Amino acid sequence: MASIHEYKLADGTRLYRVAYRKPDHSQATERGFKTKRDANEFIAALTVAKSTGTFIDKADTKTTVAALGPVWLENKKPVMKPSAFRPLEIAWRLHVLPTWGKREVGSIRHTEVQSWITALSKNLSPTSVIRAHGVLSGILENAVKDRKLSSNPSKDVTLPQKRVKPPAYLTHDQVQSLADAAGNKSGLVLFLAYTGLRWGEATGLRVKHIDTKKRLISVEENAVNVGGNIIVGTPKNHERRTVPYPEFLDSVIESESAGKTPEMLLFGKGYAHVRTPDVRSSWWVNALQTCQANDPTFPRITLHDLRHTTASLAVQAHANVKALQRMLGHKSATMTLDRYADLFDSDLNAVAVALNTAKISRNVVTVLSQSDSGQKETP
Questions:
Q1: Cα atoms in the Cβ-side hemisphere of radius 13 Å centred on 13
Q2: Three-state secondary structure call for residue 3
């Protein structure tokens, strides 16, 4: 129920206020209606909102982003890997909280969010901008679900396009050159290039995870550097997998596991995880510089490009998509095809050549058969 009451300001201006009950039956008042008709229209809209479950308490719209942000982050933490959660926490602390922390959620407008995105795009990478937007949007989406907002003002803003770097692939000879230049990390380079394991998966391997008889690797742990600390968890997608390795890696595994117990780490001294090399000055940088000095065409690659190299070499060896998907730990073969479409394009060309050769061979056989059938037997 709602009722309309007239009142006057000090200067004699006549206005109207509406007294009504919220869905929780508590009393509330809305003031400042210039006409009784305006007050009645408010009551009509209020009645519809209460009956359809879309009522928004005006007091709730005054909740600030700073009050909601920590709750959103805390709910994300248990369901995300530390390496994925940390960038969200940084985006919240550096970009969302300073701009939006003191703002009431009900006061935020779509155009303001778009202007913020545009300003961020001038100094940050598309990935960082999209991540910051995702944090704000997630917080506001929770506000919508909690009936603090009727809609999310951060939706449908124009975001910058990510610049996808094409994968770099090494040849067999280039892999060997890189391994030779890597010094005591030679075995690790070869292992990464021919198994397709991620850095954290490879450095998280223990001796017990290698079946030397079947030449199989059991990928069960992932060691990731998060803020300077190595956090050990499950592999990406939280799924264990088994990866085969080629025979020539026997010597690498034998050398790395020599004198170690089953529980010790395969790479390094066995007790501490090998850390990701610094991109400015490290054995990795030195190895790349040596290769590029010897061969100006040697591509500038990242550690992760060794995983891409595995895919390239496997496709060249005629590995099928499903096998490659399982080897790399992708969720689906579609993901593998999307990621390495350029590799399979060349594979399709090979299929076309093979079909052409088969057809020509078939035509030759048919012609010869017809020719033979037309010959007369000599006495």
A1: 9
A2: strand
CA distance 338 to 340: 6
Residue 104 shares a structural domain with residue 217: no
Say whether both 84 and 125 belong to one domain.
yes
Query: Is there a single domain that holds both residue 46 and residue 75?
Result: no
> How many folded domains does the chain comprise?
3
- Contact indicator for 308, 170 with CB cutoff of 8 Å: no
With contact defined as beta carbons under 8 Å apart, do 329 and 219 qualify?
yes
Task: Please give the pLDDT value at position 266.
Answer: 97
- Looking up residue 6, the CATH number of its domain turns out to be 3.30.160
Contact (CB, 8 A) for 108 and 140: yes
The mean pLDDT of the chain is 90
Domain range spanning residue 219?
Answer: 172-342
Give the DSSP per-residue string, 143-164.
Answer: HHHTTS-SS-TTTT---PPP-P
Q: Are 223 and 200 in contact (CB under 8 A)?
A: yes
Residues 6+ apart with CB under 8 A from 171: none
Among 62-76, 178-192, 250-264, 313-327, the least confident range: 313-327
- The gap from C-alpha 79 to its chain's centroid, in whole angstroms, comes to 14
57-84 residue pLDDT tens: 888 899 999 999 999 999 999 988 888 9
Closest CA to 133 of 102, 164, 110, 163: 110
Percent of the chain residues topping a pLDDT of 90: 65
51 and 72 fall within a common domain: no
Instruction: Give me the pLDDT at residue 379, please.
Output: 47
CA distance linking residue 265 with residue 188, whole number of Å: 13
H or E segment and range at residue 8: strand 2-8
Tens of pLDDT, residue by residue over 157-193, are 999 998 878 889 999 999 999 999 999 999 999 999 9
Res 2 pLDDT > 70: yes
Most confident range, picked from 58-72, 308-322, 341-355, 356-370? 58-72
Picking from 126, 67, 59, the residue whose alpha carbon sits closest to that of residue 101 is 67
Q: Of 15, 32, 55, which closes a domain?
A: 55
